[in-house]
Amino acid sequence: MHPPIPISHLGESSEPDRKYRLLEQVRRAIRELRYSRRTEKAYVQWIRRFIVHHDRRHPRDMDAGHVDAFLRHLVLAEEVAASTQAQARAAIRFLYDRVLREPLTREVTGAPATPSGFVGVVLSTSELRAVLGYLDEPYRLCAGLMYGGGLRLSECMTLRVKDIDRDRHTLTICAGKGGKDRLVPLAMVSVPPLDRWLTRQHRAWVLDVRAGILVGGLTLALEKKYPRAAGDWRWRYVFPSSRTALDSAGQRRRHHLHGSAMQRAMQTAVARSGLTKRVTCHSLRHSFATHLLESGADIRTVQQLLGHTDVRTTMRYTHVLNHGGVGVVSPADRL
């Protein structure tokens, strides 16, 4: 018989007085640095896969060679994208540098994955109208806000009533990617449907208050600073979930609409419109940036609106301006 597989360093400790197990240490280190929950989920998943790949050996018993072997496996056996391999490498480096405090003795490369070279899909105005025409509320409004302001899906889902400035026609994106805040435009065409939607949601909020249902997504520090925020209309999500959930204290709260609901609605609308492009919710953000550049907007302005740290990230949207029917005449048209 095979000896039992050691799993103590993979589980989570349910007793706070015991020494934290490895993945719980990872979670605590990530939260101390205020990384996003999505980063936490991804890093924990990659560290778990790294350990399981090497027969559940503890990372202290492994070195850079084991990390290289795992990264090669991802490329050669699983054929992951370059960005996926880079994320796995970052997660494992975080484990050794921040959690174990035992940095790897040499640079880890693995078998380098070939960058996919994928260019974001951009929709024309006619294609956008076609897709929006097959979306029902609130998904049509979500898509309008994402295209009108270049929002990411998660930024749209977590938008709160207080973040809307009708007079200046702006939206405040709080703690976007990288924990940064920024202002984005609120398209005037989105104001009437947004007002109608918020009128309906205000009536629903009144019912929630009467039922003792509080706003979700507030940190303990925020609730200490603003004790009434959980019951304040201004802190309610613009797109609340239809379901409620109990928090750790047993209080029922209403969180925001899950992004997967918007993704499903978007895919259905794209299929019904007959488009054959690889369209996702993020295509609305690509279209926002590209259409701004086409209209003559300065690339630094677009960079700020998108929340990019490096202008080189924004430069990728210039591909539409310099290729294809926009910037080049096909030689076939000269025949």
Describe the overall structure:
- With 335 residues, the chain is mainly α.
- The protein has 2 domains: 1-115, DNA polymerase, domain 1; 125-318, Intergrase catalytic core (hpI Integrase, Chain A).
- Helices cover 48% and strands 5% of the residues.
- The chain has helices at residues 22-32, 37-53, 64-76, 82-99, 125-133, 139-149, 153-157, 191-211, 220-225, 259-273, 282-294, 299-306, 311-315, 319-322, 324-327, and strands spanning 164-165, 170-173, 182-185, 214-215, 245-246, 252-254.
- A hairpin with a 5-residue loop joins β5 (245-246) and β6.
- The longest helix has 21 residues, at 191-211.
- The chain is globular.
A few lines on this structure:
The chain is mainly alpha-helical and 335 residues long.
CATH hierarchy class name of the largest domain:
Mainly Alpha
- What multimeric state do the chains show? single chain
Q: What name goes with the CATH superfamily of the largest domain?
A: Intergrase catalytic core
Structural class: mainly alpha
Task: Give the low-pLDDT segments.
Answer: 13-18
What strand order characterises the main sheet? 1-2-3
SS element count, helices = 15
Judging by the overall fold, what is the CATH architecture of the largest domain?
Answer: Orthogonal Bundle
| Helix content class | 40-55%
Computed over alpha carbons, the radius of gyration is 24 Å
General shape: globular
Strand content: 5-15%
Number of β-strand runs: 6
Give the CATH topology of the largest domain.
hpI Integrase, Chain A
The count of domains is 2
